[in-house]
Input
Amino acid sequence: MATSASPAGGQAKRPKTPFAADNRFYGRLAVALALLTFFAFAQFSLRGLTDMTAMPAITHLHAVIMAGWVGLYVVQGWLAATGQLSWHRPLGWAGAALAALAVATGFAVGTVTLSLGRVPPFFDPAYFLALTYCQSLTFGVLVALAIANRKRTDWHRRLMLVVMIVLLEPVLGRLLPLPLMGTWFVWPQLAAQLLVLAFAMRHDGKVLGEVHPALTLGGAALIANFATIQLLHRFGPFRDYALGLTS
Output
């Protein structure tokens, strides 16, 4: 009677499934992006490049909300990967509430920061406002889309990754030498975001044999967000509104 050969040790290795490979890849990438996010903001503050005591209360509130959301994103990825759905699902709704608060406070931070004259000098006021508004809106729309696809694990986890890639904009803003780059800094930022997305696409190509449509949609969202910011800050009525906040 024929028997199948097993590797040394007498136990056959279980085949790697796309789901298991996804768990490892997206879980590790979530941790890496979260660590990069916290490092970027921490080193920026420790170098004395921002006076936290002079920040308005809404900025501190937004920071706490976003830190909580990023931390929960990592925890949620781990809970899903380990099959602990009894925790993953209720915490997901807590994350949705945090995301809604993040959008609301994000809009408020942009408006208040501009009205108090706390915009960095290398930022055009209208560009800064367009950036904060569009980033907040894109974040909220993508989170809502991910929640709508929560029963489709492959879509949900990839859309949540795209949300984190959107959040890399302020992270990169604290890592790149923006004052030395002038108005060109937006291009390296977008390139870095697309590079992370391409890294995930490469994983999908190897594991699934094709790029998942959620990542393609994510790439379109990143480019649309970028293009909208560029157009909005040049739009006359919006510029007038932004400049009116500074007076």
Summary: Confidence is low (pLDDT under 50) at residues 1-15. Residues 19-45+52-246 form one domain. The radius of gyration is 21 Å. The chain has one domain: 19-45+52-246.
